[in-house]
Amino acid sequence: MKIAILAHVRQRIAQPFAGGMEAHCWQLAAGLQERGHEVILFASGDSDPRFTIDSVLAEHYERTFPWAEHRGSPPLIAHLDAGYEAACDRIADGGFDVLHNNSLHRFPLAQQRTAAVPTVTSLHVPPYDALHWFVAASPAARHRLTVTSQKQLRAWWPDGAPPEASVLHNGIDPRRWPFQPRGNGEAVWCGRVTPNKGPHFAAQAAMIAGVPLTLFGAIEDPGYWQAEVEPLLGPTIRYGGHLPAKALAREIGRASVFLFTPCWDEPFGLVAAEAMSCGLPVAAFDMGAAREVIGEAGVMAEPGDAKGLGAAINQAMLIPRETARDRVLAHFTHDRWLNRCEALYREVSVGSGVSQHNPIQVASTELVF
């Protein structure tokens, strides 16, 4: 198939990944290419050159519009609208069999566009006002919508999801996150360093538990880092930098427990699945889809409760590492995810009605929370 992937353009689709959305889009493009599809990645022009890039913007907008200027910025909105409108026009004229839309932008959702190019839209965030109405109006014969968890499905459609919407759990390549049979007795955390990811809670909990902790990830919010995280660094709490996936997998695999501290309705939690693949049990805040992803491979604490998370750390370290790896192999593999993507592409390409036995929706109910 000839497949267009339309990316979010806040960051480059390249390593080291800024966050889960960038990792998801990179893995999607790489995986589809490996399966023999012709893939064009519509992303920022400074994305990974291993892909065929059709630039939505010349460079990712974080470089032009710093993080503090994102919210409601008219120049940024106009900049994105111009880029996405032109990209959507090129996709319409490009002879694509299907578009996989990861953009979080309203233009690809318009029914006149999905009628022209069969589209699968993946929603990677909880509902928010700027996009909610456009998503609600978008279901159509040649448009499918996916979310990454049952929790997210209920958030987007509290009165019941339309038949065009289903749960498509994220998948990772276990080869890139290899199992390590033993840990070193320490804890690890990774993600974007922002308040809604809660690394300061991870540091506080590790100190309470008496377990050394290393934090990894991009410092997205410097003010938060300086005020809440940096003062906690010391002999047992350190910052390990922002690493490419291979180096990060090696560092994670050495540890004995992964700390997952969402302070928002986390739609999935890709970093938790990656750590579980390496064999790490998880101590987590019970927020968003954390319980759905982690299941029997972790111990939950109440959101924002550093003391409770400290206790969860010591309990989680008793969980066999094989339990964490086995959960990923059963539910969150790259191949399982790509198989479902291809099934959706075939469904929208032929323009048939929604299957009464949607394999993605049925499979999503098998998880034990």
Automatic annotation (TrEMBL):
Ordered alphabetically, the record's keywords are: Transferase
- What InterPro entries has UniProt attached to this entry? Glyco_trans_4-like_N
Keyword flag Transferase = yes
A UniProt-annotated Pfam family: Glyco_transf_4
Gene Ontology terms for molecular function: glycosyltransferase activity
Q: Where is the Glycosyltransferase subfamily 4-like N-terminal domain?
A: 19-176
Q: Does the keyword Methyltransferase apply?
A: no
- Name the record gives this protein: Glycosyltransferase involved in cell wall biosynthesis
Q: Which organism was this protein described from?
A: Novosphingobium fluoreni
